[in-house]
Structure of Cytochrome P450:
Amino acid sequence: MLIGTPRRPVPRPTDRLRPLVRWGLNHALPKRVIAGAARKGDLHAQLIVATSTSSEAPLALFERIRAEGPLQRSKFAFVTASLPVVREVLGNADVRAGVEIANGSGPLGRLGAWAAETTPIGPLTPPSLLVTEPPDHTRMRKLVTRVFTVKAVNGLRERTEQIADDLLDSLASAAARPGAGQVDLVEAYCALLPVTVIAEVLGVPEADRGKILEFGTGAAPSLDLGLSWSEFRAVESALSRFEEWLTDHIELKRREPGDDLLSKLVAARDEDGVALTDAELKATAGLVLAAGFETTVNLLGNGIALLHDHPDQLALLRREPARWPSAVEEVLRLDPPVLLTGRTVVRDTEIAGVQVPRGAVVTVLLAAANRDPDVFTDPDTFDVTRPNAAEHVSFSGGRHFCLGAALARMEGEVGLRRLFDRYPDLRLQPGARRRDTRILRGFATLPATLA
């Protein structure tokens, strides 16, 4: 069970309506409209429906959308599966991060703004770096970059290797228990490696790390569209409890600062002596914590499955271990942890030679762009020797390029290489299951025998 007693005032009757309105405007209503458009043949709507009903990547739909041209206009948004166009969108100053279903100045916009006043801090709510734009985004990112440096990440490699080795020892013990026979690699390895690393980075006590895993799992569907009422309530509950825990954790770092990066972030000041506000600290720390393990869990699980299913590629890596960094890039390209992302045009602009009006939504299909045949030879083939594998857009791009990319790459390399070096006869067993989340893509379970 998640623990923590809410300290917020008892909500007024009108406040109790706000979550219902948020759900209705951002999930229930769009879901109905999208379903209708999908039945009429709208490819973007069909893509949303497909990702909502299946955990498999909709590769056939990717190709149909690609065939319509570099930038297709659907009923709801402009959509692109082209890698060059994805990069153009992500780097366009006239396009901001995030999508607001109920925006504008009309009745629905005003109702949406009223309902949003009590939204818990999450990855898609300001002041999260994912949806904040310059000048605030520039100021916040600069402060975070000062303490979340590549040098700091490189210093974590040895500790990450130690954590991986300890977890692999535990895997052997678990598999040796009478009646066990197999282990779930997601639960016992893929999840624990990145959550342990990021918890140490941010000074999270060991006793709280189980809660972090639960918070992250509970909040992961917050990126998705079309949640049921029960799913939506569960997500907002997880976000609210996470926010309460973060408030206490940040206060602890103020009283008792350590050498961890969160303590440094709490103390960080820009050139004018301005620190992050409490809301910015919570949004940033929460994003770093969640993104620091949620997507890496997927990277590790997806990588294990790909390497297991392509023994020729794994054998090549054993002969030529210097190729492991390239192998991680190829995993990220072929089966990325994030399927797609959305952007909103703030000024009339031109993208891929198409005039795109202010207020339009642009959906960039990261997973489809990573298979762009104009960029990648034999794009559906898993090839750890691919010379341009790192040209993928799995870490987004432009000013919103993932701050944790270096950490994820390092953890992916260490985690995958250590696992297959220790257990060269590892075999995945029937029962593997993908996560229910639509935007975040990975495995919920990966049953395996170690020998």
Remarks:
- The first strand starts at residue 72 and ends at 73.
- Residues 278-309 form the longest helix (32 residues).
- The mean pLDDT is 90.
